[in-house]
Structure formats: structure tokens, C-alpha cells
Amino acid sequence: MSNEFSGRALIVVPAWNEEAAVAETVREIYAAVPAADVLVVDDGSSDRTVECAREAGALVLELPFNLGVGGAMRAGFRYALRHNYDVAVQVDADGQHDPSEIPDLLAGLAHADIVIGARFAERGAYQVRGPRKWAMVVLSKVLSLLAKTRLTDTTSGFKATGRRALPLFAEHYPVEYLGDTIESLVIALRSGCVVTQVPAHMRPRRAGNPSHSPWKATVYLFRAGFALLLALVRRWDTTVKQAVPMAAPPAAEKRMSS
């Protein structure tokens, strides 16, 4: 782990029917950040995602039914807060995020409350085209103005959340479509959190097929614009309740002592 970060980090992996990829993703994370704990939040999978994650050594939180990425991440943030972690890092289960870049995100928290792994920032060859690209450009420009810094990839799911933003997201992380990206950043910025980015690679999916198509990209354009508009005009209650810390989870204690 980076020398600039010495706290307790929880790597949160939201997973829905990822039995073919989740185990290797968990093993990669442990190899990249051995001092961290890995929590796979199973989002109502109907396959062997839970068993594969446990066999790879991850902590597993099982949701009774599919809530989407936002719901899974809110559960992960609550778990991190109640077990007194300093940082929660979101990593996709499908292998597209490179765990070797997690230390870069953690190092960025020395100067910010949220650090985005940006796919269009001088690293890698990841590209999108058409309506999806247009939506991403508009979203990044608007949110850059709010953040008072240049953000090039505000829809990235590869993010680190620090101690100040953890209770905020544990209480208010949006579960609606695109809420885990657009609305969550608006909430954080309106609450005074500092958001920045570091360059990150985007790799091919380890298993499964991407859900994008020209029609879905066009729908994404309009949904993204609508979601941004709602996020900007909505009155957010960012009151944060005091969380009650809990003991470290048994599986984590066992792994740390082995």
C-alpha cells in the first residue's frame, strides 16, 4: 500500500451474477493492497457469485434482492463506517478496474475527500463514442465547475471515499439510476467535500458482455442529462447521524492473523 496512506482501507466490490470474474478480481486486489480488506456486496445474484467470492477470501455481504450499484455501494459504505474503516474504495467485479492502481487513489486522499480513477486522463486507450461520449463530456464540464477543478470522467465507478465523505455516503448515497455517479458527486460537492481525480486504465471485461449499444447509448444521453438536472435542482438533506462503531468482522480478523 502507498506510504502516504496508513489507515484501514475496505475495498468494496459490488457484484451481480459475476461468478466467472469475481474470484480473480478479489485475488488481484489482495495482491495489490494486502493490508486492505475486501468486501464483496452480492446484489441479489442467482449464480455462484457468493461462493466464488468467499472461496477467494473476501468478506461477503448478501443483499436479499437486486438493488443496483447504488444500493450495493450504500450497503458497503455503511459496513465501512460501522467497522471503523478510514477509506472505502469501489472496484467493479468484472475485472475492468486495475487493482494495482488502488494505491494511487489512496494517495490522492491526502489532498481530497473523494478521488476518481479517471479513464480519460493521460493513461490507457479507453474510448467511448457517440451519445455516450457527448453525455460524459457535458457531465464532466458541469461537475468540474462545481468542483472548481478539472474532472474528465465523472461517471467512473473506480473511486476512493475518505473519512469525511464516508458518513455522508452511508446515509445519503443515491440508489437511483446514475445516482451512484452523478448525484453522489453533486451531494458530496454541496456538502463541502473536495473531489479530485487520478489517471486510471480501463481493461476489457474478464467475463460477460458489455450492455452498451447505439440505442442504449442514446437513452443514456437523455437519462444522464435528466439525472444531472434533478441533482442540481434537488434540495439535499445532508444531515449525518453518528454511526455506532462495531468490532472488526471475524473473517477479517482471521485473515489478518494468518
From TrEMBL:
It comes from Actinokineospora alba. Pfam families: Glycos_transf_2. GO terms for molecular function: transferase activity. Residues 11-163 form the Glycosyltransferase 2-like domain. SUPFAM superfamilies: Nucleotide-diphospho-sugar transferases. This is Glycosyl transferase family 2. Keywords: Transferase. Gene3D superfamilies: Spore Coat Polysaccharide Biosynthesis Protein SpsA, Chain A. CDD domains: DPM_DPG-synthase_like. InterPro entries: Glyco_trans_2-like (IPR001173), Glycosyltransferase_2 (IPR050256), Nucleotide-diphossugar_trans (IPR029044). Belongs to the glycosyltransferase 2 family.
